[in-house]
Amino acid sequence: MALTEYEKYIRTEELLSLQKSADTLTCHDEMQFQIVHQAHELYMKLIAHELGFFCELIGAKEVARAQTTLRRVTMCQRLLLSSLDLIDTLAPSDYMTIRTGLGRGSGQESPGFRTMLRLPGETVWPAFDAFLR
After folding, report:
1. Taking a C-beta distance cutoff of 8 angstroms, is the pair 31, 22 a contact?
2. Which of 97, 85, 7 is nearest to 39 (CA)?
3. What gap in Å lies between CA 62 and CA 39, rounded to an integer?
4. Could you give the domains of the chain?
């Protein structure tokens, strides 16, 4: 069957192929673990995109739109935090199985997380400081 316009635009086939197949999961909860973390990476990418736009807006003194953009960033951050509740539902034995598969891997290696640590000081604050002057 041909892909719908929605499927083509969102690229659902590609997106949904990024998780392990059911027969290759090390445990039941691994699917949830992967999807939550992949969604986090997407939301952090959106936050970085929006913070860059915020900097452009305050540079152009478009304060109202900059404020709306920051509200969007805050909403994304809330989604990130609330989705961590899903991780709390992992069976401890499944989590240990997943951790073994990750090896030394850690959320601190996340490209999105590293960007979130870097952006405020390197990009957002200088733009905001320039706006205040």
Report:
1. yes
2. 85
3. 30
4. 29-132 (1.20.58.480)
- How is residue 40 written in tokens? 């986090």
SS3 128: helix
Find the distance separating the first CA and the last CA of the chain, reported in whole Å: 58
Burial of 113: CB neighbours in 10 Å, binned 0-12, 13-18, 19+: middle
CB-based contacts of 23, cutoff 8 Å, min separation 6: none
Percent of the chain with pLDDT over 70: 100
Asked whether 30 and 97 are in contact (CB, 8 A), the reply is yes
Q: What is the pLDDT of residues 11-44, one digit of tens each?
A: 999 999 999 999 999 999 999 999 999 999 999 9
Token code pair at residue 54: 């915020």
- The answer to whether the CB of 49 falls within 8 A of the CB of 43 is no
Whether residue 127 contacts residue 62, with contact meaning beta carbons closer than 8 Å, is answered with no
